[in-house]
Specification:
- The chain has a single domain, classed as TIM Barrel (Alpha-Beta Barrel).
- Helix content is 35%, strand content 17%.
- The chain has a 6-stranded parallel sheet. A 3-stranded antiparallel sheet has the order 2-5-4, with no helix packed on it. Strands 10-11 form a two-stranded antiparallel sheet.
- Helix 6 runs parallel beside helix 7.
Length: 224
């Protein structure tokens, strides 16, 4: 399999009340520096790791997913130096805009990989007009995929294929196979494969994925 690890942890700030935002909620805040957020990537050397390409009010009232331009340049540069392919997570149009800037200035390599994250409060809303605006903003030589949450997960499998992209499914975004029926990851993948193939597309294996995305499979460092 192709391994993809998150580098998104370590960027959460949970503020205090609206009248007294400081000090922040130390128990819930995990904000750390760029190097610390990348330690496990350097140790494990996965083929892909995520790069959440912007800051966003993330669902809960006082929770901010924090990724400053400086932080993203530092982390993106580390990924490029390590030879780990960044999966750019774009939760809104501005995130995609900044990702293109990172490629333009050479922090990230060209022919980037981007995930369009739809319907996550309070990022890009879950509607076809916004989705197609995001799709149309992806450079022609990039690879992209898309997902949405809960009951919209499978409709977005179809939408992504029809729009010329790739798909993402899994329990991170949706727990249910049907009403009242908890899913497994395997079941979600099986259902998505059926949708993809019924639309006339095909699912490719890990070796073809590596060739398409320019990935390098490496053994992790042996820790003494």
């Amino acid at each position: 399999v192709v391994l993809n690890l998150t580098a998104g942890m370590g960027g959460d700030i949970v503020f205090g009340s609206t009248e007294a935002p400081f000090p922040v909620n130390a128990a819930a805040t995990d904000m750390v520096g760029a190097t610390e957020r990348m330690v496990h990537i350097e140790e494990c050397l996965p083929e892909i790791c995520t790069l959440d390409c912007g800051t966003m009010n993330f669902a809960e009232a006082d929770y901010v997913m924090t990724n400053t331009p400086g932080m993203l340049r530092a982390m993106g540069g580390m990924m490029t130096k390590l030879g780990v392919k960044p999966e750019i997570e774009a939760f809104d149009t501005g995130h995609l805009w900044f990702a293109k800037q990172l490629v333009e200035e050479g922090t990230l390599d060209g022919q980037a990989l981007v995930q369009l994250c739809m319907g996550v409060p309070w990022g890009a809303p879950n509607d076809m007009n916004t989705f197609l605006a995001m799709v149309n903003a992806v450079p022609a030589d990039w690879n992209w995929s898309a997902f949405s949450l809960g009951r919209d997960q499978m409709p977005y499998v179809a939408a992504a294929v029809l729009a010329g992209g790739n798909v993402r499914v899994g329990l991170e975004d949706n727990l249910w196979l049907g009403k009242g029926q908890l899913a497994t990851n395997a079941q979600l993948v099986e259902r998505s494969v059926t949708i993809i193939e019924n639309l006339g597309a095909r699912v490719i294996g890990p070796e073809e994925v590596r060739a398409k995305l320019g990935l390098v499979k490496r053994a992790p460092k042996v820790m003494a």
